[in-house]
Structure formats: structure tokens, C-alpha cells
Design goal:
The chain has 2 domains: 102 residues, Leucine-rich Repeat Variant; 149 residues, Leucine-rich Repeat Variant (Alpha Horseshoe). It has 13 helices and no strands.
């Protein structure tokens, strides 16, 4: 059995991740990756499997023993990022299994800040999975948070509130889903319209009758984009039968 690495620090963990990404940087891949994501922040050119391998090695070599240190390392990776993969690494650390014992409501202000600062689908949608874990763990407390986010001017907080249950399927809290959709139902923003359609599409795979009812009741208010996306879930349910909750995967 290999010896347990000595306790590390957030600073050392951040440095290890950065060093690992630097070693693998590929300018030829970096430019297309940045263009695809329409990102103002540059990329190293390290694709997801390799980025996750770097993270796993750095996390295992630099264990943290407190929730405060874990949150500090997430913050450090995010705040010192010079390349987008470092921000992805921050989200990987938030999802790292050994640290799920530290999940608590203390993460809400941090996740809110990261969502607002990330302000793009690639980071925001991954962060939505982390918020979903909080909802699974503290459902009553998170309901209040999500309903509040759904009314914010910031479209990315709204988007997270709408899509946070996309993997819940038959366990979807429909009252919460509809409450989070309602403030954005007539929005012209693409990312909100897409989020509404996505959320309804996934719920339709488990409860098509309810989604049909909702679509009929809100036909005049739903955008064509949202309705088309929802219809895909209805078609899936018709072809393949009902789909149960999806096991939550790391973003």
C-alpha cells in the first residue's frame, strides 16, 4: 500500500495543477479551442481527458484536510487563472469525490460568484451540476436560493436555477422547476430560452403527460426554441419509454 501523501496546502495544489497544464500546453490546439468556446480567456490547448488526468494527479498528490482549505483551493484556481483550463480545474476540484464530505451551504456564495464571473455556458453549465449537488443535499434551503436566483437580472444565475434539475427526471420538483422558469418564460435571451427547453426536454423523458400539459397551458408564452427542445423529450419518451433519474456525473 503506497504511503499517504503529507497534508498539502491550497497554494501547493494550485501550483501543481498549473505546472501540469503548462507541461501539456499545445498552441496549435489552443487557438481552435478558444475560438470554439468564444472565450476572451486563452487556452493552454489541453483537452478534457488530459486536463482531468492532470487534475487527478495534482489533487491526489496534494491532499487537503479541511473544508476551508478545499474552498480556498477552488478559489485559488479560479482567481489566479490565466488560461481557461485552470477554471475548468477549479470546477473539477469542486467535484472531486474525496471532498464531497465538505459539501455545505457555505459553498453558495462561492458558486454564485463563480457563475457570475464565468458568465458563459461552458463554465456555468458545469457549475450547475455542483449547485445540483447542494440541492440534493439541502433541498429546502436551496429551493429558496434557486427561486431567488431565478428572479435576478443576471441571466447566468437564472440559467442555473432553470437547469439545476436536468438529471433529476422523475424526481424533479415540478413546482420548483416552474417557479424558476416563470420569470424567464417570455425572455428573448437565447441562453434562457435554451435552458427552459433543455429543462422541459429532460423532464419530458420521465413525465411526458405533465410536460404536454405545461406546454399547452403556456403555448402563447413559450418561445419556439423552448417548445422545440421540449418536444424532443416527448419524442424520446415515445420512442424509448420513460427514463429514470440519471446518475450525476462529474462535469
Amino acid at each position: 500500500m503506497p504511503p499517504t501523501p503529507p497534508t498539502s496546502s491550497p497554494t501547493a495544489l494550485v501550483a501543481a495543477v498549473r505546472a501540469g497544464l503548462e507541461r501539456l500546453k499545445d498552441p496549435k490546439k489552443a487557438r481552435p479551442m478558444q475560438a470554439y468556446a468564444k472565450s476572451a480567456m486563452p487556452y493552454y490547448g489541453v483537452q478534457a481527458p488530459a486536463m482531468r488526468a492532470v487534475c487527478s494527479a495534482a489533487f491526489d498528490a496534494n491532499p487537503l484536510t479541511t473544508a476551508a482549505a478545499w474552498r480556498a483551493a477552488i478559489t485559488g484556481l479560479w482567481d489566479t487563472a490565466t488560461h481557461k483550463e485552470q477554471r475548468y480545474a477549479a470546477i473539477e476540484l469542486a467535484a472531486h469525490p474525496p471532498y464531497q464530505r465538505f459539501v455545505s451551504m457555505a459553498l453558495v456564495p462561492l458558486y454564485r460568484r463563480l457563475i457570475q464571473e464565468g458568465a458563459w455556458w461552458d463554465t456555468v453549465d458545469a457549475l450547475a451540476h455542483r449547485v445540483a449537488v447542494l440541492h440534493d443535499t439541502y433541498p429546502e434551503s436551496l429551493k429558496r436560493t434557486l427561486r431567488a436566483w431565478a428572479k435576478q437580472e443576471n441571466i447566468w444565475l437564472r440559467r442555473v436555477a432553470i437547469i439545476v434539475q436536468v438529471l433529476a427526471r422523475e424526481e424533479t420538483d415540478r413546482a420548483l422547476l416552474y417557479d424558476c422558469i416563470e420569470p424567464s418564460l417570455e425572455s428573448k435571451d437565447f441562453f434562457l430560452r435554451k435552458a427552459i427547453g433543455w429543462a422541459l426536454r429532460e423532464f419530458a423523458k420521465a413525465n411526458p403527460d405533465e410536460v404536454r400539459r405545461y406546454l399547452a397551458a403556456n403555448k402563447s408564452r413559450l418561445s419556439a426554441l423552448s417548445a422545440r427542445e421540449a418536444a424532443k423529450g416527448l419524442s424520446h419518451a415515445k420512442r424509448h419509454g420513460l427514463v429514470a433519474r440519471t446518475k450525476r456525473r462529474r462535469p
